């Protein structure tokens, strides 16, 4: 049997922790597919694979909060049964910690090499080449924690053996975390920094805005609400207008006014270059993680 994807195929999630559950949630709860081709991209069954009973119970608890899947997906939760799950699956989502990948995939290698299933890997630092020793069909994904709420961003690169139908399937499933961007793998370390670590950088900015309100006497709750809306509203404004941020920034700057005064101090303090250099440093660290393999 090959890993050819049929209409009623099975998908396994190996490592159903924080990110595995985010993907499970996004795929299981995806709105009903609008045509037959898209419907065929949804598995009829998802098998979640964990290491022990305790983490499997967490997945079962999460499933209790869901209604029926709009695309009719059934879920089977397992632990310590990776081999059986992989044997029964046509598509595999790999979502374990990077240091465990080798020990998890090595015993599965004969099955993977035989079936050549599509491996959708969200594991940081594991390159397409390093995963191709198990199956030649690899889609490497970098996503982030807002994916848990449907506001994630996923950057995706494929190995050359992933065909156009499989690419469309990966896009349909993974885009459910929020947004989907396809890039060559050479951009993956930068995507790890910008997308994967990005929420921590934005939270630093959010925290700073919030604390500025508190410092000037606005209570914590209201400072937090204002800071969240400023970030959310500004991002939406850039998205809706399609304008470059600097154009919109200058529209807020009245000559001799408050905004330009604030911006000048921030430029003096190196806020912009600090952010750029910080993201670049995260990218440098990501590239070293990849080379450890
Ligand atoms: N968290 C993020 O913000 C983020 C963002 C982007 C990408 N990633 C990537 O996502 C991956 C997962 O991260 P995470 O934060 O979701 O980790 P996590 O919460 O620790 O989840 C990993 C899961 O793997 C399971 N596992 C361990 N050994 C296993 C085995 N032998 N067979 C099957 N499952 C096993 C664990 O189950 P047990 O508890 O039973 O051991 C756990 O549920 C990482 O590679 C990371 O690079 C994470």
Automatic annotation (TrEMBL):
Q: Is the keyword Amino-acid biosynthesis in the record?
A: yes
Asked if the keyword Amino-acid biosynthesis belongs to this entry, the reply reads yes
**EC primary class:** oxidoreductase
Detail which positions bind NADPH. Answer: 82
Where NADP(+) is bound, by residue?
Answer: 14-19, 40, 95-98
Q: Return one Gene Ontology term, BP aspect.
A: L-proline biosynthetic process
> GO molecular function: any one?
pyrroline-5-carboxylate reductase activity
Q: Which reaction does it catalyse?
A: L-proline + NADP(+) = (S)-1-pyrroline-5-carboxylate + NADPH + 2 H(+)
Q: EC number(s) in its UniProt entry?
A: 1.5.1.2
- This protein's pathway: Amino-acid biosynthesis; L-proline biosynthesis; L-proline from L-glutamate 5-semialdehyde: step 1/1
Q: What InterPro entries does the entry give?
A: 6-PGluconate_DH-like_C_sf, NAD(P)-bd_dom_sf, P5C_Rdtase_cat_N, P5CR-like_CS, P5CR_dimer, Pyrroline-COOH_reductase
Q: Please give the family membership noted in the entry.
A: Belongs to the pyrroline-5-carboxylate reductase family.
Q: What is this protein called?
A: Pyrroline-5-carboxylate reductase
């Amino acid at each position: 049997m090959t890993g050819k994807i049929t209409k009623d195929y099975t998908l396994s999630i190996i490592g159903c922790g924080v990110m595995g559950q985010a993907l499970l949630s996004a795929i299981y709860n995806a709105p009903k597919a609008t045509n037959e081709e898209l419907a065929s991209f949804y598995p009829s069954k998802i098998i979640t694979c964990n290491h022990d009973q305790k983490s499997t119970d967490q997945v079962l608890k999460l499933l209790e909060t869901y209604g029926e899947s709009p695309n009719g997906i059934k879920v089977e939760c397992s632990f310590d049964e990776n081999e059986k799950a992989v044997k029964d699956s046509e598509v595999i989502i790999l979502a374990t910690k990077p240091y465990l990948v080798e020990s998890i995939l090595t015993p599965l290698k004969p099955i993977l090499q035989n079936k050549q299933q599509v491996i959708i890997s969200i594991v940081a630092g594991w390159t397409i080449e390093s995963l191709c020793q198990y199956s030649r069909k690899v889609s490497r994904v970098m996503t982030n924690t807002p994916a848990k709420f449907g506001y994630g961003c996923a950057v995706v690169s494929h190995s050359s053996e992933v065909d156009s139908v499989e690419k469309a399937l990966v896009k349909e499933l993974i885009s459910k975390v929020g947004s989907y961007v396809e890039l060559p793998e050479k951009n993956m370390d930068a995507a790890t920094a910008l997308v994967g670590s990005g929420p921590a950088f934005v939270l630093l900015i959010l925290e700073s805005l919030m604390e500025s309100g508190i410092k000037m006497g606005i209570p914590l709750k209201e400072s937090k609400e204002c800071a969240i809306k400023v970030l959310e509203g500004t991002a939406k404004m850039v998205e809706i207008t399609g304008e470059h941020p600097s154009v919109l920034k200058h529209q807020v700057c009245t000559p001799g006014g408050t905004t330009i005064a604030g911006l000048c101090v921030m430029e003096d303090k190196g806020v912009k270059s600090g952010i750029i250099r910080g993201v670049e440093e995260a990218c440098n660290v990501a590239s070293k993680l990849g080379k450890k393999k």
